[in-house]
Amino acid sequence: MTVPIADGSGRGRLHAKFVIDSVTTEAMRSSSAATFASVNGGEAVVTIKLDQPLAPTFVDAATNNCDISLVWESDENGLLELAGDPELITDP
Hints:
A three-stranded antiparallel β-sheet has the order 3-2-5, with no helix packed on it. It is mainly beta. 0% of the residues lie in helices and 46% in strands. The chain has one domain (2-74).
């Protein structure tokens, strides 16, 4: 995932949690992973990558939904302002 950062944003860590819900006609299962990226100030884009790819439990499920939560943890009580929408990076 890439996250565009506005000028003047503080330093800290941007935490991300990814949750995939896989639903079939008989069951529902979730898989999740969490990670973070350091924000040192001055960068225009922060990239958040998972160590291992996250895949749905049921590949042939009726639906697979991915929810992503971002949480900002500041080093200096500064704010993080986004310069645009985060963009999910996926492998084909």
